[in-house]
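ok so i was messing around last nite and threw this chain in just to see what happens. nothing serious, just curious
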Amino acid sequence: MDRDYNTVLFEVEDHIATVTLDREDRLNAFNQTMLEEFREIWARVRADDAIHVVVLRAAGEKAFCTGVDVTDGIDKAANVWSQDDPGRALGPKQNQVWKPVIAALHGMVAGGAFYWINEADIVISSDDATFFDPHVSYGMTSALEPIGLARRIPLGEALRWALIGLDERMSAARAREIGLVSELVPHSELWPRAKELARIIAAKPPAAIQGTVKAIWQTLDMDRDTAQAVGWNYTTIGNPIGMPAVSRERFVKPRWRLR
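result:
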């Protein structure tokens, strides 16, 4: 353990930062303290070149995260025009983190949990996970989470998730079908599988990995021609940095697996 936090566990080993939401008694809901700690965590991840990849997971058996802790609440400026979206603290991409984030989901995955999921690079899940959005059931507009989600899954699925509220939960199997998660595993295999994927990525030249992540995310909302032109700039900058780390004479191709 490299640093003690109040709401998460954080450790770095073999170039992998493992971040574990640690509010099991509150179903890992986030409060103001967690927002502040994630700002610090993402700043460290971005600055520390010893960290190549992040695994994001959650403690306990019941939930990955159920959104904001409505008991503790979060701080809001008195002036409505000065209020900020809490997702700016939680999301890695909004904190300019271009090191891959692997999210390992289980149990209940609800509402504000999608601040992380929408900005994760690889999302895997245990087969017991369920996904739902409680906002409209409580008379609250669901906007920020489904806006991000609609960039990952079909629009109709994002709308159904947001509009049905607490009357329906999306199964892990359905989440896999629509591409929300890329892999399902038994609960007992979730953390080991996430770490296995992280080790594969962490072993590759970090400049190539980070350039790939940044190029894809920063061109998502561009038209195709503009995105391709910007992408060419990333290869021009990134390849001279990443390629010297690989010796073609000594390079051994890995044994691939079919997914």
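not much to say yet. The chain has two domains: 3-202, 206-245.
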